[in-house]
């Protein structure tokens, strides 16, 4: 284990790796230092990619909880930051998926002028949305359903596969092939 007492000579990743290993061995002070040092990093990493800056605090807390719960899965033989970034990415995706699914997916016709005024940032592109909607009608219900859930609504591949009683790879292949065909139809 790297020396933690004289951590000026260590990179941030080496310091966090040493804290993590010491925390795994039961050192509460190292555990506390680890969490207090990674919290600002987590917040800085996610805040630029969120529509609402207030979400950063919630996601940071979710990541810290994940670090707490899964610290025993971290291997000190490997760099700490990639492990932490994976947790950050998973928690951010989970948070956004939950947030947008709670909003409810109100469906309306893309021909509706109120919808266009409210949701289309570039009204001159409204016809393109209508073209996509029409092109999707060319696909089977299953293809359209998979594509909509994965590519438009952002559901996890695993969730869609379970819901439709399909393998994850079959869902990925269907979504990808539908996207390719859709691109061809829209050219």
Structure in a nutshell:
The chain is mainly α and 187 residues long.
Give a verbal description of the structure.
Helix 1 (12-24) crosses helix 2, helix 7 (141-152) crosses helix 9 (168-186) and helix 8 (157-164) crosses helix 9. The protein is elongated. By secondary structure, it is an all-alpha fold. The protein has helices spanning 12-24, 28-47, 55-70, 80-102, 113-119, 126-136, 141-152, 157-164, 168-186. The longest helix has 23 residues, at 80-102. 69% of the residues lie in helices and 0% in strands. The chain has 2 domains: 7-102, RNA polymerase sigma factor, region 2, helix turn helix motif (Rna Polymerase Sigma Factor, Chain: A); 113-186, Winged helix-like DNA-binding domain superfamily/Winged helix DNA-binding domain (Arc Repressor Mutant, subunit A). The protein has 9 helices and no strands. The relative contact order is 0.07.
